[in-house]
Amino acid sequence: PFMAMKSGLSVRTKKKAYLTYFQHIENLAYENQVTFIELRIPPLSNYCSKDSQVFNPLIKYSFTNIPVLTQIIDLKQSEDILWNNISKGHKANIKVANKIYKINYWDSSNLSKKTFYKYKNLHEQAMGRKVRSNKSFEMFFNWVIKGYAILLEASLDEISIGYVYIIIYKKRAYYASGCRDNNKLYQSPSHLLIWESMKYLKKNNVE
Question: pLDDT by residue (tens digit) across 148-158?
Fold first, then answer.
């Protein structure tokens, strides 16, 4: 990930911090014989604000700029506008899935380890193998407990069918992970989970 910088720093202090940061990375790369490094700037950072010209600050440090497509939703819009911007096919999918599945919202107030590990197990089942370390899932769990993430579950007759995991930071949210049980699906819960997560985030002042 891109380095986090304290707000309010002078240009001179920022420049010094950048140089120290990249010198440390270069030293680590040399010690560990690393020949390639990738840094990603979050699309919702100030560098990528839609109200300003996008500029990659890494270019001046000999990095190559490789833009990646992403999708950003402005949750400050009314729920009606957000709904109207959804395609006809996805709306139909959401309406059908809404009649089938119960949506459970897991946050810092109600998430247990048992519930979270149902998500972890389904994730591994859906992927066909273990693609995230146990440490990563422990981090995911702790972020929810600390209020930095939420987990939404679509269930049918008490059986978990799908999940989405959303990271929340400073009134902004990032879709981090999702999975579904393809062996039990009558209808995909994915679009419904995204729509319900949008409504949840909006009600909780995420922009």
Answer: 999 999 999 98
3 state SS of 75: coil
Name 91's bridge partners.
none
pTM assigned to the model: 0.74
**pLDDT(176) > 70:** yes
Percent of the chain at pLDDT exceeding 70: 91
Cα four-point dihedral sign 138, 205, 172, 14: negative
State how far the Cα of 150 lies from the Cα of 111, in Å rounded to an integer. Answer: 9
CB 153 within 8 A of CB 104: yes
Contact between residue 145 and residue 154 where contact means Cβ atoms under 8 Å apart: no
Task: Report the chain's terminal Cα–Cα distance, integer Å.
Answer: 22
The contacts found for 136-141 with CB under 8 angstroms, 24 or more apart, are 140/116, 140/165, 140/176, 140/177, 141/111, 141/113, 141/116
- Which whole number is the average pLDDT over 89-107? 95
Q: How many CA atoms lie within 13 A of 70 on its CB side?
A: 15
Assess contact for 207 and 76: CB atoms under 8 A: yes
The SS3 of residue 21 is helix
